[in-house]
Amino acid sequence: MPRNAVQPLDKFFNVMSLVAIVGRPNVGKSTLFNRLVGQRQAIVDSTAGTTRDRHYGKTDWNGKEFSVIDTGGYTVNSDDIFEDDIRRQVMLAIDEADVILFLVEVSTGITDLDTLMADILRRTTKKVILVCNKVDNYDQIYSSHEFYKLGLGDPYCISSMSGSGTGDLMDAILEALPAETSAQYEDDLPRITIVGRPNVGKSSLTNALLGVERNIVTPVAGTTRDSIHTRYNKFGMDFYLVDTAGMRKKGKVTEDLEFYSVMRSIRAIENSDVCVLMLDAEQGLESQDLNIHNLIVRNRKGCVIVVNKWDLIEKGNNTMKEWREFLMKKLAPFNDIPIIFTSVLNKQRILEVLQTAVRVFQSRKRRIPTSEFNDYILPVIEETPPPSTKGKYIRIKYAMQLPTPTPQFAFFVNLPQYIKEPYRRFLENKIREQWDFSGVPMQLYFRAK
Ligand code: GDP
Ligand code: GDP
User: Fold this and answer.
1) Among the atoms of ligand 1, which is closest to the Cα of residue 159?
2) Of 140, 169, 332, 416, which sees the most CB atoms within 10 A?
3) Rounded to two decimals, what is the model's pTM?
4) Is ipTM > 0.90 here?
5) Which positions does UniProt annotate for GTP 2 binding (predicted)?
6) 18-176 is classed in which CATH architecture?
7) Per-residue pLDDT tens digits for 213-223
């Protein structure tokens, strides 16, 4: 499609900022994380039916939304932590985050590990906020002055336990976040990203699809960092590919830890519409893969699963079917996802990956007119009504798709509190049977009529 044929509707896409909490073990990182994110997370989780990640989540302050990650949650968190672990934790936070909260603890004073971290943090151009935790009473504020010696300015005194001082800290975080957090697009094209563990074949796929010269149409200006979205026009498709950190900084640090794959995927996932989650057929499905899948679902992004290196697998008549069934079981409850078996090496089915990602992008935007939706779903409900609870009849009178960027459906019920998870899932499956939402997470809400 020629560019000027694209609808002139300006599209603003929020580029999510990332705040990382670093600090040695026991300074209170996870307590602070829960304080900043916990409350809101609980609300989101109860409706979305997703698993809770205790180390990564979104929060907002004065209407501005951003992500927070507790880096300690992904690293070895014991007292005999190695200097190297700390060093890597800090380096990665510097690479990936926009703002770094460096947590120290008032009662212990400055420890060797604090000094080590401060030495690294002083050298970065990223915003670093020094936070002195466990300041539970006024007297302790005096002791906090010592931390000025770390060379990172005056510390913000907080008590993560009671929450005191965290409001001021949030103000400081907002101030430090990059001003420009939305990129402007002149179009409504799919933003696709390829994610997965190291060595599954992400760069090989990118190169096979786009060639080494990469057919760049235009890089998008205005993103907070070096052009993370690049626009391509290939195979009759017009799309953006979001560069993953894994490609940028390949092999720079040991990447076998869960933390690295999570940390490196977050930004790419948040800033895309559809994520291609790549697996290595020889290695199967590991906890890191499930973590990335979970990140995709929690961010309500479209998902395509690619099982790569299919050439290395000994295949029988049912190998693909067995793989499919195995993956479906592991990825439940959200397992209505297209799965493609590729060999990038042999260029097998690689175009299908792109085509499928574009299809998922379209499905994710699908709007079902209210009358069409009710014409289908109300008879389904009549045939299989929600089971009555405590002798009470539960009636769903009416339903609709909400005008949200990702598929969400509201059901108006006399007693919404009695609709249980199995029935919610039943309705979701019925919706998926009727319309193609493959690869698209959806939310169902039950509201009082
Ligand atoms: P992490 O290892 O850095 O994630 O530290 P945690 O969040 O697990 O906290 C370590 C210990 O410090 C726990 O026993 C917390 O209850 C305690 N703690 C955290 N924040 C505070 C605080 O503001 N005041 C006090 N007195 N204790 C705290
Ligand atoms: P990334 O770290 O996920 O970007 O992975 P790479 O694209 O660098 O690939 C890692 C290794 O796997 C390289 O040696 C590739 O040549 C190899 N590889 C990639 N795709 C395939 C495939 O389909 N079959 C086989 N046999 N090897 C592959």
Assistant:
1) 23
2) 169
3) 0.73
4) no
5) 196-203, 243-247, 308-311
6) 3-Layer(aba) Sandwich (3.40)
7) 443 444 443 33
